[in-house]
Design a protein that fits this description.
By secondary structure, the protein is α+β, with helices and mostly antiparallel strands. The chain contains 12 helices and 10 strands. It has helices at 15-31, 36-47, 52-58, 68-105, 122-136, 150-153, 164-168, 186-195, 235-250, 303-308, 325-333, 346-352, and strands at 140-141, 147-149, 173-174, 178-180, 199-208, 220-230, 256-263, 266-275, 292-301, 317-324. It folds into 2 domains: 3-105; 122-351, 2-Layer Sandwich (BirA Bifunctional Protein, domain 2). Strand 7 (256-263) and strand 8 form a beta hairpin. The strands form 2 sheets. A 7-stranded mixed sheet has the order 1-5-6-10-9-8-7. 41% of the residues lie in helices and 19% in strands. The structure holds 3,4-dihydroxyphenylalanine. The site of 3,4-dihydroxyphenylalanine (DAH) has 12 residues, from strand 9 and strand 10. 3,4-dihydroxyphenylalanine (DAH) binds next to strand 9 and strand 10.
Amino acid sequence: MTTISASSDTQPLSLEQQLTQLETRFASDLAASPSTEALEALRVAYLGRSGELTLVRRAIGSLAPAEKPAAGKRINDCATKLEELLTQRLAAFEQAALMAELEQRIDVTFPGASPALGSLHPLRRTTDAITGYFERSGFAVLTGPEIETEYYNFDALNIPPDHPAREGFDSFYLDGGLVLRTHTSPMQIRAIEAHGTPIALVVPGRVYRRDSLDARHSFMFHQVEGLLVAPGVHLGHLKAALTGMCRALFGPEQRVRFRPSFFPFTEPSAEVDTTCPGCGGDGCSTCSGTGWIEIGGAGMVHPNVLREVGCSPEKYSGWAFGVGVERIAMVRHGIDDIRSFYENERDFLEQLA
Ligand code: DAH
C-alpha cells in the first residue's frame, strides 16, 4: 500500500486517508467560520504556502514515479474542492450582507431624507407681506423701470434741476438724461399717465443711491411705493392705511406716528414711524431706546404733481408713501447688518425661511 506522510507520524496514513480526514476537518472548520475574514484565515490554513494541503502536496516528491500522477491529480481535485467550498461560502456571506442592507433600505418606517427645496428670499417675503396687505384692499401691484429718465425720477415729482433735493439723493447718473431710479416714486407719474385717476396702487422694486456699503447702507435696496388718488382722500386715510400695513407686518398692537418732514412731491410730508416690535414701545437696542422705528416717508400728493399728469387738484386729492423693505425685514427678523440680505449664505436664508 502506498503511504505518504506530511509529518513524522508513527502510523503513517495513506494519501487517501489523509485527504479524507483533511476534507472532513475543513468542512467542520468551514461551518464554524462566522465571517469573510475567518474564511480568508481558513484559506491560508489549508491552501496557503505552508497550509495543510500544501504540505501534503510537498510529500509527493517521495512517491514512486509511477504513483506521482494519480496522487497529484487527487491532491489537485481536493484543492479545487476546497476552493469551491470557500467560494460558495463567501458568496453566501455576501448575499446575506446584501439582503440585510436591502432590508434596511426598504424600511418604510425610516424617516425620509427631505429634499433641499429653495424658499422665498426674506426680502421677497416682506415685500409680499406689504403688497399683499394692499392687494387685499383692492390696490393694484405695478412694477416699473429701474433705469429712469431724470424727468420721471425728479422733474415730474416737483424736483426741478436746481432743487437741493436732487443733490440729496446721491444718484447714479447715466448718459442721455437717464438715472438709476433713486426711489419708486416715479411710478406715481407713470401709473397715472397710463391708467388715469382715480387710482390705487403699490409698486415694489429696487432703487439705487451712491451710498457706500456698510451695516446700514447699500447702493441698492428695495422700496414699496403706495399711491391713492381719488376725490376726498385725506391724511386720516393715509394713517389708517399705514397702520393697517404695520399691523399686518408686525401684529395687532402696532401704532403709527407721523413726524413732520419735507418731500417736494408731498404737502404736507411726514416721516413714518411704527412702534418698535422688539420692545413694544418701551425702548430697546433695536429702536435706540426711542420705542419707535422709522419705516419710510409719506404725505399728501403735491398739487404740482397732480397737475403734471393732468389731474385737477380741485377735484382730486391723494396720499402717497414709500417704505424701505430692508429696514422692515431687518426689524421683523432681528437682523443688524443689511449686507446679510445680499450675500446668499444658505445658513442665513434657511434660518429665516
Ligand atoms: N421717495 C421717498 C424716498 O425715497 C420716500 C417717499 C416719501 C415716498 C414721501 C412717497 C412719499 O411716496 O409721499 O426717500
